[in-house]
Design goal:
Blueprint (H helix, E strand, L loop, with lengths): L1 H30 L2 H11 L6 H11 L4 H11 L3 H17 L5 H28 L5 H30 L5 H14 L18 H35 L4 H13 L2 H14 L1 H20 L6 H13 L2 H11 L4 H30 L1 H21 L7
Helix pairs in contact: 1-5, 1-6, 1-7, 1-8, 2-7, 2-9, 2-10, 3-6, 3-15, 4-6, 4-15, 5-6, 5-8, 6-15, 7-10, 7-11, 7-14, 9-10, 9-14, 9-15, 9-16, 10-13, 11-12, 11-13, 12-13, 12-16, 14-15, 15-16
Length: about 375
Amino acid sequence: MSTITRDAPKASSSWALGGLSWLHFLNDGAANFLPGVLPALLVSLGQPIGRAASIMTVLLLGQALQPAMGWLADRLGGRSLIIVGVLGTNLGMALIGWVSNIYALYAVLFLMGLSNSLFHPQALAAARTLAKRRHDSVMSLFLVGGELGRGLWPLLASLVILDAGRQNLWMLSAITLVSVPFVFQSLPKQSPRLREITPIIWSKHWRAASMLVAFVASRSLVLLGLITYLPIQRHQQGGSLTTGAALITTLLVVGVVGNLGGGWVSDHIGRKNMLIISSFMIMFALAIFLKSSGWLMWPLLGILGVAIFSTLPISVLVGQDIFPENRALGSGIALGFGNAVAALSLLLFGLIVQHIGIHSAFEVLVGVAFLSLLLAATLPISSTQ
């Protein structure tokens, strides 16, 4: 009887973590499928390539609200924002199948970004409550669901559009409608944090938070630049829609190894060391990738994905530790605000693409990766944290 008593909570926590990761898979798949179908979408709406950066930016700008949603999540507690968020991103994906002009597309994309902001802070905080020890490894297991969704959905969406047309993107959203009733009861409930809790001391945290946002933004800009323009570059070279989407899938799905391994390695060598090593790998792999061609591109994209995503769980945990008074807010700042800065920077990168071409613009990203390395080396965190 005592064995059953000890094992039941462990099994319950594992089921809850699996449910959270599955919803993360569905949410991030819906919120990030667009790059795989962007060439076809631009053609169907009669838009030039120059619109690609603005389209992706609008999608990601809603993530700038993640800090505010983190504050709201801590005040509300519970698990409602997780469900509202994942349903909203999937509704947006279905609606993209029916938009007929660029302005309707912008409206739907902002809805998806806002829904994404609702989902992440509460889900990230819930995942941390399930970790009794080795927070880095548990956070990696949660995040792997999202990265698989980000990687697979562009390819799946491109296949749906080629076989059934853009109007049938709703078929991917139907998976979420079926899943939510089964997963909802397993999600951990979080107690609301009352106004009487210790207030956030911004003067104490602003420097570390600013450096973390700059690090996340520079790393994310490298990723956004690649996933936005790699399919377009392939399309310009005569490649198919699915080939361009497969490049993104390789980058993101193989990157899951980084999500899992990054947390595990960080538990052993420290977060700061892991961020420095990963940032160097991003810069090195990207520089080699830009000089490669043929089959060699695919393994190099995989290595690049591993390096990029090995930093993700660590960034989230550093953000939570910077703001111990409100961990959901820390998650929102680390992911949402950092990614929003990267999204705005993508507009500038789009102008660079228009002036010097995609391949030359990719070389600019090597410099951005070097900046990310410098920031990783100067982030104010303990090397053994």
